[in-house]
Amino acid sequence: MFSLTFRSPDYDISVLQPRFEGSGHIQKKELRKWADEVKIFSERMESLSGKAKILSDLFAEASLPPLPNGGIRQLKKELFAIHDLMTQALDIAGRIESELIQTGRH
After folding, report:
1. Rounded CA gap, 84 and 41, in Å?
2. Tell me: the pLDDT tens digits for 68-103?
3. Reported pTM
4. H or E stretch including 105?
5. Residues contacting residue 22 through CB under 8 Å, at least 6 positions apart
6. d(CA 45, CA 52)
7. Which one, of 23, 27, 83, lies nearest residue 52 by Cα?
8. Which residues lie closer than 8 Å to 27 by C-beta, 6 or more apart?
9. Half-sphere exposure (CA, 13 Å, Cβ side) for 70?
10. C-alpha distances in angstroms, 78 versus 23, 74, 98?
11. Cβ contact 90:82 at 8 Å
12. pLDDT (tens digit, 9 = 90+) per residue, 26-53?
């Protein structure tokens, strides 16, 4: 019914680390690129939030369209997977804030 890909090898930290090491023009260019990536991520999160609110309203009104056999069970499984991923993402964001952003402000 639905499927999530939890990790992409393109975003493994061992792949990203060398790009952020060093200094000068290359590092600034890479940081600008990642600023754009973070902005896209933020926009997608806002979109996901909107879709989640719609789904919540559908559940509250009990007006979900009929799903195939096992559809609700699979939907719940995928929602739990999304919830787990969001929890991990918020944890990582908190660590980034404390280790990178707060350190950079001092």
Report:
1. 17
2. 777 778 888 888 888 888 888 888 888 878 877 666
3. 0.59
4. helix 102-105
5. none
6. 10
7. 83
8. 20, 21
9. 3
10. 42, 6, 30
11. no
12. 677 878 888 898 899 889 889 989 988 9
Distance spanning both ends of the chain, measured CA to CA: 48
Closest by CA to 34, choosing from 13, 48, 51, is 13
DSSP track, 69-88: TTHHHHHHHHHHHHHHHHHH
DSSP string for 4-60: -----GGG-HHHHHHHHSS-THHHHHHHHHHHHHHHHHHHHHHHHHHHHHHHHHHHH
Provide the token pair at 63.
């007006």
